[in-house]
Each structure stands twice: as structure tokens, then as C-alpha cells.
Write a structure and sequence with these properties.
InterPro entries (chain B): AAA+_ATPase, ABC_AA/LPS_Transport, ABC_transporter-like_ATP-bd, BCA_ABC_TP_C, P-loop_NTPase
Number of strands of chain A: 2
Keywords (chain B): ATP-binding, Nucleotide-binding, Transport
CATH architecture of the largest domain in chain B: 3-Layer(aba) Sandwich
Order of helices and strands of chain A: HHHHHHEHHHHEHHHHH
GO cellular component, one term (chain B): plasma membrane
Helix content of chain B: 25-40%
Shape of chain B: globular
Number of helices of chain B: 8
CATH class of the largest domain in chain B: Alpha Beta
Organism (chain B): Cellulomonas terrae
GO molecular function (chain B): ATP binding; ATP hydrolysis activity
CATH superfamily of the largest domain in chain B: P-loop containing nucleotide triphosphate hydrolases
Largest sheet of chain B: 6 strands, mixed
Distance between the termini of chain A: 75 Å
Distance between the termini of chain B: 32 Å
Helix content of chain A: over 70%
Number of helices of chain A: 15
CATH topology of the largest domain in chain B: Rossmann fold
Number of domains of chain B: 2
Strand order of the largest sheet of chain A: 1-2
Oligomer: heterodimer
Amino acid sequence: MTGRQRLPGQRPLLRTLLVAAGWTVVALGGTFALDPFRNYQLALVAAYLCATAGLTVLVGATGQLSLGHAALMAVGGYGFALTRNALPFDGLPAFVVALLAGALASAVVGLLLGLAAARLSGPYLAGLTLAVVIALPAVASTWSTVLHGDQGVHIAFEGVPDALRRVVALEQWQAMVAVVVTSAVVTGLTVLRGGRFGLRMLAVRDDEVAARLSGIPAGRVKVLAFTASSVAAGVGGAVLCFVAQTVSPGAYTVGFSLLLVVAVVVGGLGSILGAALGSVVIVLLPWLIGRLTANLPADAAQRLDGNLAVLVFGLLLITVMAVAPHGLHGALVARRRRRPSPDVPRPTAEPAPRKVLVPTEEQR
Amino acid sequence: MSAQTTPVRTGDPRLAVRSLSVRFGGLSALDDVSLDVHEGEVVGLIGPNGAGKTTLFNAVCGLVRASAGAITVGGVPLPPDPTRLSARGVARTLQGLGLFRGLTVRENVLAGCLGATDPGTDAQRQLDALDLAAHADRSVGDLPYPEQKKVALARALVAEPQLLLLDEPAGGLGPDDIAALGDLVRHTAATGCAVLLVEHHVDFVMGVCDRVVVLDFGRVIATGTPDEVAGDPAVDEAYLGIEVTTP
């Protein structure tokens, strides 16, 4: 008896894993070339990428718009922190157990939201998810004995493992952990999107009735997609908590949630590479703006602090949509397609003789 | 061309609709409709706009809930869930094509057989059968309309259904494409598939169907072979508004 065959064009799992392992090794090697602050930024990009990759798969493949992925990151972060603090042991086992707990917490919340999301669409779903992120501070205050209100939950400082302490700095270690975890998340999402489930998601996005008539359980596909996307965001929140050693509602505001959407749209909806580009943009752009405004008078710098970044993100979004509607990844793909192949002969500098239509004798 | 008299069918029908009624609030869209479609038979469902043809399709597919009546496929009641139709050997095309615009031709056909062990081979076989293989990797939206219709048909046929519901398959097609569609429908029925089609193109219906059921205002007003139905004055009145006078 033969098992289920791959779809045409579907990359073999082993090849996907090898490609992921290759990129992970490259990224880990890259951490040795970066200074501590750059490694900190790399860890942030990796944490954000978990959330944006999940979000781009959700929005791009199923058409479900979530404005509340920051809240799902927070759920993962709280799950990680509370579990980590409750564990009687330290080190890698504690990290793994806490990470799984964060993923589980976000899966449960994502499943509940997904069940509602399967019955909603467009602005209604966006509104529901936005309400969740707006409610986050109130939830943290209401259960302040556990979630510690606005202060959030802190985790015990855990440095570099003894075996690596001589060769790896703290920020580099955090970046390495973030890269490995993000690689696992992105690989999982790539496999999910590339197979039968991915095709089901796209079919549901394009025509739900036709998909159902083709035997695709649209509701279940939407719920699973939302849950998978939530887990990715939750893992991102856990990584962020690991890097920052704290999780609080102030880090997961509506503005940050919208920023995740901006990253996905600017990078290119549905593209995981686009999500990576978008994550780089939302980490580097505020830092670049901060560098540019650093030399301004203190009063002007204070007024611009925070506000200028929002303005620039808005302008960036408008510009990218006007110039490259499919985002940065879409623009890169289009550019690659336009580039002539080296095998194709280039047109000669001398123009071809112009053809002139001359009427025949009969036509005359 | 079909026979002159209604053929006598034996055995259980593949599709049996019994006393089906569908109401939308105070509006009766279908009222006590019964019809059968047997294995290897092509039945046409015709009627003026608003007669209830697509509503009947939607009721069979579970897209609208019947207020009364029963629908069975192979003698077993159909679940009121469209996603379980394909597992029961029922496939349907939609009036508005219902293609997945963001997918290629091959992916559209694959979507019709994702539950199969080897959907790639099944899809390729269907693409070859309908001469779509050359377009397999093109975006479905880039194809001309008749080719898009073929893709929708290929997706419905790829799972080798036992009952095929075609909603206006000839709409928007030229004479050559309609002739080819007729051949395809007859060929599909020859494999044992029961075909029920809704169509406004009367010549196509008369040429391809074994039997025709005429609906008007949600009720069956005539049923029989194409010739029997064509000569029925009630059908003329329903379609053309001709007042039928009896001597």
C-alpha cells in the first residue's frame, strides 16, 4: 500500500528541512560577525518574524485579517514567563518546557479566536481581533495577582550556558536561540503552506462555496490556519520574553499590532520572505529614525520621539503600495523576471530595419 | 438525439428528489418538487428565470435548507453539508465558474481531489482528458472564458463523481464549444455518471438530455423526453408567455 503522494511542485520535506538547516547555520554563523547591539536587533527581527510569518500565512493564504496578533504574542510571552518562573529547574530544559507552554497557551487562545474567526470575515474579524489587543491591559490589571498588571512578569536572568560562555556574548546567545526557534517556526509554516493544507487555504480564500463543494471543510481550514498562526505569534512572544526577560502589556499595544500588519503588507502579503523583510524594516526603521533625530535640538527630538516613526511607517506603507503593490518581495520577484537571461541574446545596438507596409499592385 | 418517449428506468435512481419544498420567508422557491436521475442519464432542468432551478441545486448541495421533502443519492439521504458531497460521489459546477483565481489551472483541478492518495496523477489525467495540459501551470484567470469553463468542469470531474450537477454549463460559450461540451456530457454519462444540468440554452438541452424537467414558479410543470417537453403547451406558456387556448 502506498502512502499519500506529494502534490506536483511540492518540495520534498527532506529538502525543505535541509534548506532550513542551511539558512539557520548561515544565520548562526552571522551572529559571530555582529556586535552585541546588532545581535540584539537580530533577535528582535527573529521574534517579530515568528509573528509576521504566521500573520502573512493567515492573511495571504486564507484572507483572514487579524489586527490582534500582538495580543497572541503577549499570550505566548506570558505563558513562557509564568511557566519559566514556576519550573524548579533551569537551563535548556526549562527554556524548552516554557517555550512549549507559551506555544500551547497561544494555541488555546488562537483556537478560541479561530472558532469565532471562521464565522466572521473582513472588517468584522479585524474588529474582533483588534478588540482582543485593546483588552490586553485590562486583562493584565484584572488578573494582576498572576499577570502583575502594567508591570508585567519578569523572568530570572539566565546567561550564556557555561560551555559557551568563553566564546559567546549574552546578546549573541540570545540571537542564536531566537534564530533556531524562528527557523523551526518558519519551517513549520513553510511545510504547512506548501502541501495539501496550503492548497486548501488558498481555495478557501478565493471562493469558499466552491471550496466546500470540492470537499474542502472551509470552517475547519480557517480555524486551523488561525490556530497555527497564533502558535507562531505566541512563540515569537516567548522569544521576545526570553530576550527582554520580561513581558508586559505595554509592549503589545494596538500600535505594535498594526506595525506587524504593516510589516506583512510592506514585505508582501503571503510571502514568508516578505515577512522577514518586513520584520527587518520594523526593527531597523525606528532605530534609523532615532539616529537621524539624535542631532536635533532636545525639544524637537522630544516632540518627534515616537511620532516620527509612525509618520514614516504610514508614508512607507503608502509608497510601497503605490510603487510595488505586491510588497518588497513582489518587487524583487518582478525585477528578477524582467532581468534578461544570459542565454537570451541581447538586442544589438543597431536598430533593426524598419518595416514599411507598401500596398501591392492589386491593393492599388 | 433522444428517444421520442420517456424511457422506462429500472432500479433505484442515483439522485431522487421527493416532494422538495424550499421557502425563503414568505416566498416559496420550490414547492413539492420531485425528480429522479438515473445512472448514465442526462436530465435537463429548465425554466424561466426565478423558476427555482439553482435553488434546487443549492438544496441538493446543502447550500440552502429544505423546508420539506427528501433528497437521496444512491438511496441514502444526503447530508446537509456541502463539504461531504464529494465523499458521496457528488460534484457540482457553479453558475459563476467558482474558480480559485489565485491558483493555476493544475491547482484548481487538484483542489477537486485533495482527498485522493495521488491527486497529482488524478489531476494530470483530467487535464489531459480535457486538453488543458498545455495550460496546466498558467494562472486560471489568464485563460479565455471557454477554457475557464473547462477548468471548472475538470475540477468537478477529477474525483470521478457518480452524480454531476452542472449549473449553466453552456452559458457564454460559442457554437463549437457548446458542441464539444455536449460530447463531453454524453461521454461522462456513458461512463455511468448521472448528470443533472440547469441550462437556458434550449437547443443544447434538447440535444444532450435524455429527459427534461421544466420548473415554473417553483413547481414542476412538465417532464419527459425533449420532444415531449418541446410539444407541451404549458412549457410554451411558461417560457414565452403564450396564452394557451383549448378548443
